[in-house]
């Protein structure tokens, strides 16, 4: 729907809630919905590539296909494979005192789910929560990002082709509409975006006691252990950091490396970057920064760090003069950034990689723990004892050991942050559970031993209570 006002938005929600009240879809309908969504996404893959690229200015076709198309198709496949099992009521243990009664957990759709999504993976981050919401039997209203208008239009028409308008509805608009949207009394509100907006969304949801899942951002560290092979670390860090030009919530934000290893690591990262992006101007694989505002913010971060004494290494192999209007920001390594700079206090979300020295692993762990709990943490280490120490003594939304980003691709792992980096989880079964009421049910048996326990309490009751409280 367009031209929204708070009243129109509320009417839209009521329409979906009324449809939900007619009954939760059975397994076969959910499967049919997911299969139709899968077919539509597959059929529109090239349109998705074109729309996201036009929105960004230039976006790697391969990275769009991998991160915005394949991920969604795989998530649907994984869900289809497991949904029947997930939906089955689960028998759980019953206390012996209550036998022969029995207990089970039933999975019930919560109703109508609101989904607010960001611009950086505009298809993935709208459709992955939708898949989980539909699998759990819900209906959904989606508010995609205003910063990727072509992709948001495409999502709207794709979803309108697949679903009746009282099952999935797309609301277009900027922050004002988004604020009205998050104030609606949804049965669950799923937000992906910045920590600052996440705070506002949670406040809006609190007024309705709407449960929230917040998938937020933050500064995700990568710790390199002293004897870890530098070339391997460099290749994997570059892959994780410069995917989508660093505009990835779980991109390594900064590196913590042993002081003596920094020259070799920096050289290895530069080498990787030169090989991957020989020409920034013409490489179709090097994504641009999505908006002028983000471009200016990133440039200012680097300028401020430089003014504060940091060493800046811009990797521009063909020494091209880049037109700022195209928003191609060269991969930039930053050594010795000032601790108080924006670069080291805000999420970077772009192709800039600070490298910080540490003297002991404890110092690196302390640095991580003195900052907000990150969305992701990366540890490169061949020593399992040391790895265990890092895992046990830091807390983060998710971890990949000896690589970057890949924990997000494991369907069986929950995905989500902790504290400032998010609340709640999704992906696979975890998403199904997020959008389900896990309804506990106790079935009393024909004969109940508890019926003997009743006033006036004497004799048998005294003995029974003495036994139960022994
Ligand atoms: P953003 O918070 O600016 O916007 C996200 C969405 O919120 C957009 O749809 C926007 O319209 C909406 N919005 C804006 N103002 C709002 C308000 N007052 N009330 C309700 N909604 C409002 O984020 P962004 O710039 O689009 O995305 C980048 C951020 O998202 C980064 O911080 C990144 O780390 C984070 N992110 C997190 C994940 C994750 O899975 N945890 C994934 C991608 C991005």
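Q: What amino acid sequence fits the structure above?
A:
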């Amino acid at each position: 729907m367009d031209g929204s006002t708070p009243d129109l938005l509320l009417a839209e929600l009521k329409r979906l809630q009324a449809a939900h009240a007619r009954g939760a879809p059975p397994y076969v309908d959910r499967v049919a919905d997911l299969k139709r969504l899968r077919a539509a996404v597959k059929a529109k893959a090239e349109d998705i590539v074109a729309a996201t690229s036009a929105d960004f200015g230039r976006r790697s076709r391969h990275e769009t296909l991998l991160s915005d198309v394949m991920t969604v198709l795989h998530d649907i496949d994984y869900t289809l494979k497991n949904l029947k099992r997930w939906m089955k009521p689960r028998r759980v243990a019953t206390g012996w005192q209550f036998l022969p009664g029995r207990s089970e957990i039933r999975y019930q759709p919560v109703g109508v789910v609101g989904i607010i999504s960001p611009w950086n993976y505009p298809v993935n981050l709208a459709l992955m929560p939708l898949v989980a919401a539909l699998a759990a039997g819900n209906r959904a209203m989606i508010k995609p990002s205003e910063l990727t208008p072509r992709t948001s239009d495409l999502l709207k028409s794709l979803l309108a082709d697949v679903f009746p308008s009282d099952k999935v509805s797309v609301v277009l608009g900027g922050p004002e509409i988004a604020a009205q949207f998050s104030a609606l009394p949804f049965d669950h509100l799923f937000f992906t975006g910045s920590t600052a907006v996440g705070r506002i969304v949670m406040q809006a949801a609190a007024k309705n006691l709407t449960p929230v899942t917040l998938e937020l951002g933050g500064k995700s560290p990568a710790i390199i252990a002293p004897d870890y092979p530098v070339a391997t670390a460099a290749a994997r860090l570059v892959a994780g950091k410069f995917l989508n030009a660093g505009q990835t919530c779980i991109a390594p934000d900064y590196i913590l490396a042993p002081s003596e290893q920094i020259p070799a690591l920096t050289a290895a990262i530069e080498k990787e970057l030169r090989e991957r992006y020989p020409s920034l101007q013409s490489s179709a694989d090097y994504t641009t920064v999505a908006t002028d505002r983000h471009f200016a913010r990133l440039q200012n971060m680097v300028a401020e760090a430089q003014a504060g004494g940091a060493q800046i290494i811009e990797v521009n192999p063909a020494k091209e003069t880049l037109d700022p209007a195209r928003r191609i920001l060269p991969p930039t390594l930053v050594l010795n950034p000032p601790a108080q700079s924006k670069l080291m206090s805000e999420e970077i979300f772009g192709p800039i990689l600070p490298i910080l020295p540490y003297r002991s692993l404890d110092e690196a762990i302390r640095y991580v723990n003195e900052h907000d709990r990150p969305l992701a943490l990366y540890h490169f280490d061949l020593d399992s004892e040391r790895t265990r120490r890092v895992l046990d003594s830091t807390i983060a939304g998710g971890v990949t050991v000896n690589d970057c980003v890949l924990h997000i691709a494991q369907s069986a792992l929950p995905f989500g942050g902790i504290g400032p980096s998010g609340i709640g989880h999704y992906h696979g079964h975890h998403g199904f559970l997020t959008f389900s009421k896990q309804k506990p049910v106790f079935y009393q048996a024909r004969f109940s031993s508890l019926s003997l326990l009743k006033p006036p309490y004497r004799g048998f009751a005294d003995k029974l209570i003495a036994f139960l409280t022994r």
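Q: And what stands out in the fold?
A: The chain has two domains: 6-216+420-440, 221-409.
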